[in-house]
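Example with several molecule types.
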Amino acid sequence: MQYKLHNHNHNHNQTYKGLIIEPKIRDFFIGRIWIRTNAPFPQEKIETYIKYNYFKRILGISSKRGFFKKHYTCNRCYNENQSEFIHYECARCNQLCTYCRHCINMGRVTSCTDLLIWNGAKPKFPTYHILDWDGTFTEAQAQASQQLTDSIQQNHNHLIHAVCGAGKTEILFPAVLAALQQGKRVCLATPRTDVVLELFPRFQKVFPNTILHAYYGNAPQQQGLPQLIIATTHQLYRFENAFDVVIVDEADAFPYTFDKALQKAVFKVKKQSAPLALVTATPSPQILAKVKREKWGYSFIPKRYHGHPLPVPTFESLWSYNKMIAKGKIPSKLIQWTKMRIAQKEPFLIFFPTIQLMGIATPLFQQLHEDILSVHAEDVDRKEKVTKLRNEEIPGLLTTTILERGITIKNVQVAVVGAESKIFTSSALIQISGRVGRNVNYPAGEIVFYHHGITTEMDEARNEILRLNKEGFGK
Amino acid sequence: MKRNEVPNCLLCNAPLNEQMTWKYLLTNAFPRTICSECEQKFEPYHTTQNQEVTSLYKYNDAMRDFLHRYKFMHDTLLAKVFRDKIHEHLAKSKAIITPIPMHPIKLKERTFAHVDQLLKEANIPYQHFLEKTTTETQVGKSRQQRLATEQFFKLKASPENIKNKDFLLIDDIYTTGITINHAKNVLLEAGAKSVKAFTLIRG
Ligand SMILES: [Zn+2]
Ligand SMILES: [Zn+2]
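Resulting structure tokens for the full complex:
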């Protein structure tokens, strides 16, 4: 299907009758900011569209004269951290050229890169959507969901602070539905690809009438103009002024805390007055301060959806575990713990602070049970291994912090080795503890922090869990 | 050379916390650009005595990732990563250092000559004597096809500059040897006394 557009474009004053706009091209570019040479369409076509003013063209990097030296800004990711700008002799523009290292994973942007923004007519989004979900809310969920919907309707920012296992995703459904039914375009962003892959089919299922796309590194190209987008926060760099509602899930997730760069990305992808909602189990003090100062809407759910308290971590010393493992021995406490899980047929996760240590430990654990596997961030079989654990095909998984959030395994038991390590911040430890006891039939479970000395981060994590249980149960 | 030129590892972004040691103050060593954890992932390649091509590293996962980021994602800055090792190997070379050239169209696309850039960062002077005459790459061709490829370099300088001189060809990676052989033949036919080669990676 092709449309003829007659001067729908108010930015140019000549009338071009007869340029046939391909919906495929228009739909791809609406709301996006894209490197011209990376467009998945023939360059001659792009050329013609530019000629007829269907694109606004901007330079990749701008610079202004500062007090001592030039100050650079990346026009795609809005990065202004000067140490991330690299200058070199460019053979394309034949001069000293600058590129942004901050967003280089999305294709490099240089001073001589053309960025394209759609400048033609934008079609209206449909308003007929249905929510095909027959679950029920707890009282706390229902309240939070209503508060979120109200905030979004009033273009108000909102924070949902909900413990791990509170059923956060379902809380979003009514608010997203209300926005879609007003013809609004909605973006749900999260720092991790795994979470995108988990959320996408769930939203697809409950919004059967809605065009939705999932964007993450190496995602397949998808057809149509999506009204609902589920994307990694990284992918936000590729959008601009695009959404009427932006929701960021797990806003605090390592390694992209709700830092300056991400804040900029979030603010540039939403339309100016569009509301932003953050959903997290572990809001940073900075986020809480912002919420208070700017009078955001706020919902707090201290209880899990099944009504049972959060499992509280126990601390166990594991002195010099590093040296022992390096010598080819698992400390005996850890052997006992693992053997117990295997004997009781309870699936388990053991978290390690580094890939290196985990690499040495893996064959040692395989002496306890040959089917024990390990996963890390670059593991291509990550999904399959988690599925194997979920299906009880393997007794347990050794993992880096990559599995700290987003995954749900019935009756899983968790140990953290080297809980004193820097990488285990209090929020990471809370998330890891939150893997345990999520299923209504197995609401309790083991969460042990094995350590070589207790850190304040460990104390903070434990105290926060105790505090949440107190809030939720008044004990 | 500025000392705190690179505060974080260029590959994993971990802070480098470079210690100011006497070694740095007394020698002209390059400051580090990657952390020791990343460094360990690269496997040195040991060139045997009778090989005409010297290489520094094996082609492993870490190197594949490096090459992808440098050559295909165009992170030009990564030319600094191996500068000290490259400098160490080439600084005392008596032969004339000449990089394998890129085709001008390819060069415009990539925006930098990746082999030249490695040498620039390592402070190694070089001269171009060859020109690439085809935009075709060797990637994706079978060995048969590669062997059958016609000569794809031609001489850029007058033969007087070549005659009776020793040359060292530089490339990023050595796999089948066809690129190096083509270049070598052009120089030998023009009267070069000897042509050896050096690559960062051995495929
Ligand atoms: Zn950028
Ligand atoms: Zn340039």
